[in-house]
Amino acid sequence: MPKGKEQFIKNFEDRVKETIKKYNLIDKEDRVMVACSGGKDSTTTLYLLNKFGYSVEAIIIDLLIGNYSKENLENTKLFCKENGIKLHVVSFKEEFGYSVCYMRSVLKSRHKLKSCTVCGVLRRVLLNKKVRELNATKLATGHNLDDEAQTVLMNFIQGNMGLSAKLGPRTGRISDRKFVPRIKPLYFCSEGETRKYSEMMEFPVVYDRCPCSTDTYRSSIRDILDDLEIESPGIKQNLVNNLLDILPALKEHYKTTEKLMHCELCGEPSRNAVCSACGLIQKLRA
Ligand code: SF4
Ligand SMILES: [Zn+2]
After folding, report:
1. Nearest C-alpha neighbor of 280 from the set 62, 154, 131, 125
2. Cβ of 125 below 6 Å from ligand 1
3. What SS3 class is residue 196?
4. How much is the average pLDDT of 19-35?
5. Average pLDDT over the chain, rounded to an integer
6. Strand 56-62 to strand 87-91: parallel, antiparallel, or no bridges (unpaired)?
7. DSSP state of 17
């Protein structure tokens, strides 16, 4: 292996190891479930946690978004088989009774909800439920530095600083027996670096973006940050570092204002009497 390539791989892996250690993301007794999408970020996360010797399994929600989902599912199955990792496949349609495409198109036209809002909310609730049922103690996601920087800026611009109190390498500020803590081992790895690592390792992944993600607010923020990063390298890292500096104060400030309840319809953790997933299903049936 050429020296530069070998060095990059070592630096990347050391940074992920360091993040896990510094933020105490995984304990020895943890059973970690990695939320896979078939993309480079979650595949890299899965590969590294397995390589580092943690007790790890994978879960993927089959969204049935045409060829995109099909390819991602096949790639994840292949990757898990080659690496000896147990994979759990959950069908979105079987769980909710509708395909994600149907739900998105109805809710989009009736309530002007964006694709990712519908898909993201339903996936988040479903993942927490399934991962808890599978007795995992941590849910690892492939969120990288770019994702976090985008979220910090979005929350700031939209006046949602309270939402930023939930960010950081370990997500969540309220503990609840039904809520599986989430961790982000790639927290300090940029999107570009993760892609480079994934390509060097020749992981079987599709690098195209989800075909439904084009209309999101996040895409505009991503473009702005990418442009600014070219002009002033390091701004994404600065955004994330600044968040980490004020995170303890944010957590303290928003600590008492919100409590986690359990949804009166599905029993899942929720900030309101009815959780956001059940709220969407109610809207769909109205
Ligand atoms: S990009 Fe949006 S629509 Fe596509 S899988 Fe992600 S959340 Fe769902
Ligand atoms: Zn609910």
Report:
1. 125
2. no
3. helix
4. 96
5. 91
6. parallel
7. H
